[in-house]
Write a structure and sequence with these properties.
Number of helices: 8
Oligomer: single chain
Strand order of the largest sheet: 1-2-6-3-7-17
Radius of gyration: 23 Å
Largest sheet: 6 strands, mixed
Distance between the termini: 33 Å
Helix content: 25-40%
Length: 355
């Protein structure tokens, strides 16, 4: 176990020192690929996504996906340390991406290596280090899921303090346009699109969806931008506004969009419906295993690649989400050690039971 922990921390230090902004992750992908080659493990690569299977993979067994990402956001202006230096001080490993999601990534990788040679597993393991998570890009996990093959369950490595994130909010951004007729503001002409938009905006402000999530409560809709008119004396023919919709596991994004279109007169276009809410039943054996090990369940307000994985999944990993994207980002070495041990303990307890 100590060798696994040391190898994981050393790999994370190397990854921190390689810039890997979203869409620019080739360097870290190269290093992860080389790591598996050094271990004698056959790996697969598509663009900047790397994945591997356990040694005794059996197509007749269900497959568990172990997934985390190796892209990062850009460092914010508050850094007082070199974000790419990977320094250890006072038990903390500093550096961009150390917490989000380098710690979870290398901890899942260590758990995979622990199980890799075992011939008596009741399931297959697929470890995937993926790209473009920070921008929900199409060339990340979504790109390789068809290549990996059928999945039974997924563990998504994100900083959750090793607690069980059993639900995650989804996101839709809506571009709405109210239509009227232009005319001169000094005369009784035109049909003011702003007034039409105001009716719909009020609906967005006050509407309550019939179903609420047991974890998150109601779907939340916020009008965040509005634009209309070209000059003061012309009644505008169009008024455009943007709505930020945070969906819950009570509805799919498509269902929410259909309800919205039934109630407003404006044209409504979703920029994407890909980022769906997700949830896993508390009764799922993996969640039950976590509870038996003293973990707690909660609903996560932050998004991850979990939104793009179309099977039951659980978000769990070392580190603290509050540190993500922060200046002088860090993760405790002890958190990585705990993460590796707990991932292994959870997988050892897990008995495949499709719900």
């Amino acid at each position: 176990m100590s060798d696994l922990i040391a190898a994981s921390i050393n790999l994370l230090k190397e990854l921190i020192q390689i810039p890997s902004f979203s869409k620019e992750e080739a360097g870290t992908a190269d290093r992860i690929e080389r790591f598996f080659n050094e271990q004698g493990i056959r790996c697969y690569r598509q663009l900047n996504n790397i994945w591997v299977f356990n040694k005794h993979v059996d197509k007749n067994k269900p497959t568990i996906l172990l997934n985390s990402h190796h892209d990062t956001v850009k460092p914010n202006t508050g850094y007082t340390r070199d974000p790419f230096k990977a320094e250890i001080a006072d038990g903390k490993l500093y550096g961009l991406g150390s917490n989000d999601a380098g710690g979870p990534l290398v901890s899942l990788l260590a758990a995979f290596l622990h199980f890799y040679p075992k011939s008596n597993l009741t399931y297959n393991l697929c470890f995937a280090a993926t790209a473009e998570e920070e921008i929900s890009g199409r060339n990340g996990i979504e790109l390789i899921l068809p290549l990996i093959g059928p999945l039974d369950f997924a563990i998504v490595g994100e900083p959750t303090e090793m607690q069980l994130a059993i639900a995650e909010k989804g996101l839709m951004v809506l571009d709405c346009t109210a239509h009227g007729t232009s005319g001169h503001a000094a005369r009784e002409e035109g049909d003011n699109a702003i007034y039409k938009a105001l009716v719909d905006i009020e609906w967005f402000r006050t509407f309550k969806f019939p179903k609420e999530s047991a974890v998150f409560g109601p779907v939340k809709m916020s009008v965040t931008m509005i634009q209309a008119g070209a000059q003061h004396n012309v009644v505008p023919a169009t008024c455009s506004f943007v709505v930020d919709v945070r969906t819950t596991d009570a509805y799919t994004n498509e269902e929410v969009l259909a309800i919205i279109r039934q109630h407003v007169s404006s044209d409504v276009q979703a920029r994407s419906t890909r980022l769906n809410p997700s949830s896993i039943a508390v009764e799922h054996p993996f969640v039950q295993g976590g509870l038996a090990l003293g973990r707690k369940t909660y609903g996560s307000p932050t998004m991850s690649d979990q939104a793009l994985i179309p099977v039951a999944s659980l978000k769990i990993g070392p580190g603290d989400s509050a540190r993500s994207h922060s200046a002088d980002e860090f993760i405790y070495i002890s958190e990585i050690e705990e993460g590796i041990k707990l991932y292994i303990a959870l997988l050892e307890r897990y008995k495949v039971n499709r719900l």
